[in-house]
Every structure is written in structure tokens, then in C-alpha cells.
């Protein structure tokens, strides 16, 4: 049966935006938690934020309290329209205006099925047609309300939800295995070199200007090609293929504008776009692995001098101080990294396959194929 999204919620349910809570309304010692966009993942509650307000203020603003099992939909990126089930947090919670609360309160709707539906490619394609805004894109609750939903019988909803829950559990376990490998490398780095920012082991310190070269990015328009040999890299990862490269293999890329605090280690030659810097280590002093992990620990935000879009300058970067341990110790760390990478590569392949399997199941489920 085809229904409009708003019709999935009964008169006893909730289909509303969160509350307009300003900074002045918040209180770090409050007893009501304010759920943020950062808490909403695709099919999972991330539990990341730490904002509060008092019960008195929540009552004054007539806030809607969340209940375990509510579906929370992020009306802003990234991605727009992602949804999760709100868990039991053992504290009173409300949410912000850019999150839509869906509480069907219906004997005909399974909430986990509905969450999976909202996160499906089929539903997301509908959402994208109604996205508004240029710099701050979003979908309104009014437009969400108009979207079409094919509603199968309740028993079929539950069966679909169970199948997708199981497939999702598999891929999340594989994601966790990769994270554990990264956490292990982080601990190895700290054990061998100490915190690279405070330098408790007293290693000799040099400026970036002495240990690496910075390659400026360029527009990719002249070199972009579907069959290009080299990846086009931005601060968010690969963006296409290029016929030429700017930065050699085993280098680090960081954002020049926008996403400036997310370094990426690139093992192959690449073309970096004009909003990203390529960092090429002087191998006689430091390795690419050591440089990457230093960048992971370094807070590039402190070099940002702009008010709007975060930005870095080459001159400021070259003044960064970096501890330079004995090369023999750095080489030893590289050996550990190499051993772990072979294991991590297998886990990454396994995760890729499980993501494809989940996506395929989701597409079948909401096209009537399960």
C-alpha cells in the first residue's frame, strides 16, 4: 500500500522537528541532554555530543522529550536524511531543530523497518529531489511529509528489518575490527615516540621546512579523465582520475581550505586539487608513516586565522615544529605498520564486500524483492 510519509504516524504519535535551543538556553550542569546532528549516524546513534540544559528551561521552551525507539532524521548533511533509532540513555533528552522526530505509535509500522527504509538508496533519491539551499543544504519536514512510501504488511516489515539488522551487524563488526587496528597503531606510535606535540622523550625538534616539501594543489580540469592513471585527491579522499600527478607516492594530503584537520596517507602518485596540500617527507629524516601519525595528533585548527571557511597557509605550515626521532626507530615503526597493513587490507576488503551485500539487500528489500 502506498502512503505519504506523514501518514505513517498516528494521531498519538510524533512527527515534528526538534526544538529551537540557543546557546543562552544551555547549561553544562543541566539535567536534560541536547541531542545534536553529530549524534545521528546512518542506522546508528553515535552518542558524540555533550550539550545540556535544565528541566526548567526545557519546560519553558515546551521542548519535546525523546523516547527510546524514536526515529531521528538529520535534515542536514552529511548525508542529508540519515536516520537512527534513539536508544535508552538513562537521562532526559531533547533534540535540536534540524533533527526530525518520528514516533509512529502505530500497530501497522515497525520502527526498525522504517529506519532502514529512510536510509535506503531508494528513499534517499526521493529526499535529494527536495533538498534546498546552497551553502547550508537541508530538507524541510514539510517536504519529508510528502514523500511516498510503499508499506508492506507488518510481518513482512519485521522480516525485512531482521534481515537488514543482521547484515548491518556484520559490517559494523568489520568496521570495529579496522578501528581496533588503527587504535593499536596509535598506541604503538605513542609507546615508541611519545606524544609528538608535547615531546616527552625529548627528541630533536625541527621545522617542517627542514623535513618535508609542500606541493601546492591545482585545478584538475586539464587532467581529469575516467581512465586516468592517477587518483585526484582532495581532503575528503579520491575525487576522480587524472592523466598526470603532482605529488609522489608515500605522501600525506591535508586540506588547505574547509576540512583542514583530516590527514590522509596516500601510497600512490596523485594529483591534489587546489584546496589541498601534498606533504612529501625527506626520507633521510622521517618516513611517510611517521609524518602521517604526527599529522593525526596535530591540531591544524590552531593555525586557522579565518572566521568563515577554515584555511591553512603554506607559510604557517612550514613553521610547524616536529620531533625527529632516530631514523632507526622510525624504520622499526614502519616495519610494524607494514605487518599490520596486510591484516588491515584483508579486513578492509571484507568490509567493502559486506557493505556491498548490505546495499544489495536494502535495494531488494525496498523494491519488493525480499
UniProtKB/TrEMBL annotation:
Q: Which SUPFAM superfamilies match?
A: DNA methylase specificity domain (SSF116734)
Protein name as annotated: Type I restriction modification DNA specificity domain-containing protein
Q: Name one GO molecular function term.
A: DNA binding
Keywords for the protein's UniProt record, in alphabetical order: DNA-binding, Restriction system
GO biological process: one example? DNA restriction-modification system
Question: Where do the Type I restriction modification DNA specificity domain residues begin and end?
Answer: 5-178, 200-328
Q: What InterPro entries has UniProt attached to this entry?
A: Restrct_endonuc_typeI_TRD, Restrct_endonuc_typeI_TRD_sf, Type-I_RS_S_subunit
Family of the protein in this entry: Belongs to the type-I restriction system S methylase family.
